[in-house]
Amino acid sequence: MHGPDRWLTHLLINSGPSDPCLGLGGLFLDHQTIPPSFVSLFDSGSRTIQTNAAVRLRRKRFRGGFLSVGLSIKGGSDVEVMGQNGNNKSLVEEEEEEDHETSSLSLCNKEEDKVKVKVRGSSSGAFNVTKHLWSGAVAAMVSRTFVAPLERLKLEYMVRGEQKKLFELIQTIAASQGLKGFWKGNFVNILRTAPFKAINFYAYDTYRNQLMRMTGNEETTNFERFVAGAASGITATLLCIPMDTIRTKMVAPGGEALGGVIGTFRHMIQTEGFFSLYKGLVPSILSMAPSGAVFYGVYDILKSAYLHSPEGRKRIQNMKQGQELNALEQLELGPIRTLIYGAVAGACAEAATYPFEVVRRQLQMQVKETQLSAMATCIKIVEQGGIPALYAGLIPSLLQVLPSAAISYFVYEFMKIVLKVEST
């Protein structure tokens, strides 16, 4: 063995793990013990070699390379490594290339994570919208089924122009059609009101929150509540009025002979055209815009007033104490107050917009040959029965709206908690 080889072998054999010459991942040589002849093996081309040098042997993984020897000598040159493809690259070049690859890989991973988060957020948002819509739909199904008999009485007064007293009309329906006669058309009513209420509730919450973000307010103002309610009523009306027209046609005189929903739909398309499904659209919008504004605005105002009261603040504080609460206990207003506020909101909305509802129903009953405008229809109703004719059936309508609105809001708030609907 040559002198430097013997010296290196002796150093590796006799040095222990705690020897300062050996470090993790390499061999560090002290400048006082390194022979000049050993340094010259690695940098034979260097004219000036100083004894103050540090040589480190370490394993480094290169793409297609072998075990590398890194030599750091003050005033020395770079050490080259031979790759499997036969190309010579300096250690610095290899490290820069690996750093570049690592940086690129990290960037790709970050972009992939962003895409995953975006896709996950989109999926979660769509699922939340579905749960929100289902909350409104279930509320409509439960409330409409519960008050279907009162709805039937209201339509008898509005559409058929019944002059009988309320209890006489109840006896007539029960004698002629039996108990199921009070739920006549309820399935169609659910098909109409379920999507209508689903869209209505969801649109209101969405419009209200968007208006609050646009104005930068911490809380929705009363004006924003009324605007959001009106917009939600218009949105739901535009999407759902065809089913409402079909239902009205079915319960009108002669509607039994048309053969249910499909038969009535086919009959109207064949005899009056597709746009006959949108008869009464203008008075419907004129009715639903203020109705939605009052219905949602009044409820939200009452709810906000309670939550800012000392009793409301105390209730919210108790709810945040970390105790396990069931869905009923998580209602911000509580079950009773939710029912009461819903009933009040429904009664206000019905009383404020009932004349529009009467005109709309009459328009939906007209055939194409004798169809009148909304204004002409309103004048005709007043001429035949006076101003009270615009409020025909208001009492049974209020009797229907009070429990319907109360149950609707209660079930809606309850379902949002059960389904864990997030604020839009």
From TrEMBL:
What processes does the entry annotate via GO biological process terms? Answer: transmembrane transport
Q: Which GO terms describe its cellular component?
A: mitochondrial inner membrane
- This protein's major location comes to mitochondrion
Q: Give UniProt keywords alphabetically.
A: Membrane, Mitochondrion, Mitochondrion inner membrane, Repeat, Transmembrane, Transmembrane helix, Transport
Topology class, membrane: Multi-pass membrane protein
The yes or no answer to whether the keyword Membrane is present is yes
Outline the Solcar repeats, range by range: 127-210, 220-305, 333-418
* Record localization: Mitochondrion inner membrane
Q: Does the keyword Signal apply?
A: no
Family note: Belongs to the mitochondrial carrier (TC 2.A.29) family.
What function does this protein fulfil? Probable mitochondrial adenylate carrier that catalyzes the transport of ATP, ADP and AMP.
What's the protein name?
A: Mitochondrial adenine nucleotide transporter BTL3
Q: Which species is this record about? A: Quercus lobata (Valley oak)
Gene that specifies this protein: LOC115950687
